[in-house]
Amino acid sequence: MSTSVIDTEVPVLQTENVGKTYGRGPARFHALKGLSCEIDHGESVAVIGKSGSGKSTLMHVLALLDRPSSGTVCLEGEQVNDLKPQHISTLRNETFGFIFQQFFLNPNQTVLENVTLPLKIAGVGRSERNRRGMEVLRQLEMDSKAKNKATDLSGGQKQRVCIARALISNPTVIFADEPTGNLDSATSETVEDILFGLHAHHGITLVIVTHDEDLAAKCQRRLIMQDGEILSEEPGAHTAVNNSEGGAA
Amino acid sequence: MRAIDVTRTAVGNTLRSKLRTFFTVLAIVVGAFTLALTMGIGAGVGKFVDNVASDYGQLDQMFVSAAPEADADSDSELTEYDPQARQDAGEGDFFRDMMAGGALDDDDITTLEQIDGVTEVYPVLSVQTEYVETSASDAYELQEIGFPSISDAMHLTAGEVATAGETEMTIPEKWLEAFGLEEAEANSVVGEVVDLGVPNAIGGVETVEVTISGVSQEAISGVGGTPMPSMSLYQHIYDLNQHGLEQTPDPVYVQAIVDVENLEENEQAIKADLEEAGYQGITAEDQMGQIQGLIDAVTWVIGGFGLIALLAASFGIVNTLLMSVQERTREIGLMKALGLSRARVFSLFSAEAIMLGIMGAAIGIAGGVLTGVIGNRILTDGPLSDVVGLTLYEVAPVPLLMVVALILIIAFIAGTLPAWRAAKKDPIEALRYE
Ligand SMILES: Nc1ncnc2c1ncn2[C@@H]1O[C@H](COP(=O)(O)OP(=O)(O)OP(=O)(O)O)[C@@H](O)[C@H]1O
Ligand SMILES: [Mg+2]
Q: For position B221, what pLDDT does the model report?
């Protein structure tokens, strides 16, 4: 294995001719049909498309949650297909943050415990975990709720906790699958602002799967999927919106 | 994930559904309790038997009775009914068979004295005494006196064992009180004369003047805890017991105790000789071995039930954890997605199984030990207080640690199936799980 220094010239994630099939025989289904794409360091990418087009499947493959049936996936230019599961787990823990539509917070634990879960998995000691947990909660203005049970929160607050959890291990990439799918428009706005703030100020790469046109439009690049293939690629309206404030409506 | 966090998480999860944990643990408690109790009983009774055996064992002695009739052993064979033979056998034979050995008379005693290696024969008679009266006190009730055959096993603090042929006896230390003496003053009681009250056959009490030859210490086995007359005094008391009868019946001895030369070396030879002459001889060790064997059998049977209870409890653990894995599918999926390895997921659920085992073992063993110790005290102070030195229960650390280890191993094995189920969950499917 080569350098550990991050080379921003090399795409953080890269797929080549990735295919994913489910089932066998007559029930065989091609969810991804030989798909190639690149995601650069510090990019914000939206993956959009009809329901069932393979967006989540692609995200799972990119996030090393799932192995493709064919083709290769590279992280920082290095192929990860053949790595041991243990190693892939560690890579996921250190490199990625996850935000899900259904939050997946543990209702029996406090907000702080939920947020520090990735550090606990990484083997960080409790006091250090809690210190960093409080820090990231403060950043998201959720520190006052640190001792509350996760179930006591509103939907927007829950998603902020999830963002805190995704952020705590200083990830290179944050994957968000329908992060605003369960939120009303005003709350969605706040969550989006937080995500793009992180992108702008901390250089975190964002990969967002969404149905929401407005959210997709804020990304630098949009991958439009259909039937397991990337139909087309569009630059986002992000830069344009910035230039003529409020112009697009 | 650190080991400490695995443990903490496992503890947290077992406490999450308390009622379910409670009942799962309860099943383990039953097994642990039973095993802790039986192990302790085995150890306690074993210790008692050892104490008694070591006190008696230093005597080169055998207990001799008439050998049971040959056909009494062959219960398995059918014997043709013969009314004449049955009448010949007589009524007494039933009891004789029950005791697996017959009574002896004076002829038998003479025969025994002739056997090679036998140095002394004590025919066992039962005698009654009424009271003892010292110069310094009123009469004390005297229920029980010792049988002289074990004189040599006593540990004396003063004086000597009663001399054969003399009207002498030793007294136990606790009797010094009757003379107004301290234990340290034991020597001054030697040579004192006491009056022994002995009942006769027609309701009267006759007195014998007995010289105190020594003071004995009571051993855990009870040896030395009663006055110990010389053999001739013992015989004299027996004769007095018969006084008043028109015709003194020939004495019948339940058994005889024989002193032999070097028991360890000659045991087999003497046993063989006795058998040939129509007697059976057993040593204290044989006798204690029989008791020990019986107790061992009982503890093993009860212990077996304990093991079965643990086996049943292990299925409870499997069941509880399988349910827990099912319920926490999403949580497991999330942890795996966030980078928790299979091995760690496995250890998380294994730790939970072991937690259940630890709780069950701790409560069950604490309960078993407490019950054993309290039960031992109640029984040995109460209904069984006559049996000197009896221990029914003893805290046995090594067997208890083995029980703990066994429970933890069983819990771990029970946990492997659920833990493996959890470990192989696919994070994506787990996260999709509704
Ligand atoms: N485990 C599976 N077994 C069989 N088919 C599957 C499995 N997972 C996904 N699929 C199929 O793969 C296709 C792509 O699924 P995917 O979840 O990626 O869609 P999506 O684009 O994320 O849809 P949505 O917008 O509704 O979330 C779907 O047709 C789905 O039915
Ligand atoms: Mg989807």
A: 72
3-state secondary structure of A82: coil
Interface with chain A: mutation pick from B327, B335, B338, B428, highest number of A CBs within 10 Å = B338
Say yes or no: CB of residue A52 within 6 Å of ligand 1: yes
Rounded to a whole number of angstroms, the distance between the first and last alpha carbons of chain B is 27
Q: Kindly report the CATH class assigned to A13-244.
A: alpha beta
Instruction: State in Å: Cα B337 to ligand 2 middle.
Output: 16
Residues B431 and A100 sit within 8 Å (Cβ to Cβ): yes
**Is the alpha carbon torsion for A104, A108, A112, A113 positive or negative?**
negative
Lowest mean pLDDT, pick from A156-165, B81-90, B336-345, B372-381? B81-90
**Which B residues 319-348 touch A at CB under 8 Å?**
330-331, 333-344
Per DSSP, B101 falls in state S
Please give the Cα distance from B261 to B113 (Å, whole number): 13
All residues with CB under 5 Å from ion ligand 2:
A 56
| pLDDT tens digit sequence for A218-248 | 999 999 999 999 998 888 765 544 433 333 3
Decide if A104 and B330 are in contact by the 8 Å CB cutoff: yes
User: Which residues are within 8 A (CB) of B410 and not within 5 positions of it... i.e. 6 or more apart?
Assistant: B310, B311, B313, B314, B357
- The beta strands (E) that lie in chain A are given as 13-22, 29-39, 44-49, 70-75, 78-79, 96-100, 173-177, 205-209, 221-226, 229-235
Q: What does the alpha-carbon distance between residue B308 and residue B314 come to, in Å, rounded to a whole number?
A: 10
Angle, to 10 degrees, between the axis of helix B284-327 and the axis of helix B18-57? Answer: 170
The C-alpha R_g of chain A, in whole angstroms, comes to 18
* B348: Cβ contacts below 8 Å, ≥ 6 apart: B1, B6, B9, B10, B419, B422
- In whole angstroms, give the CA distance from residue A178 to residue A166: 14
Q: Can you say how many angstroms the Cα of residue B212 is from the centroid of all Cα atoms in its chain?
A: 34
Most distant CA atoms of chain A, gap in Å:
55
Domains of chain A, residue spans: 13-244
Structure tokens that stand for B300 in this block: 């093993």
Q: Which ipTM did the prediction report? A: 0.90
* Alpha carbons B245 and B228: distance in angstroms, whole number: 27
Whole-number Å distance between alpha carbons of A160 and A119: 18
C-beta atoms of A121 and B1 within 8 A:
yes
Q: What angle do CA B158, B164, B168 make, to 5 degrees?
A: 50
Long-range contacts of B200-207 (CB under 8 A, 24+ apart): B200/B240, B200/B241, B200/B242, B200/B243, B200/B244, B201/B241, B201/B242, B201/B243, B201/B244, B201/B245, B202/B243, B202/B244, B202/B245, B204/B243, B204/B244, B205/B130, B205/B131, B206/B240, B206/B243
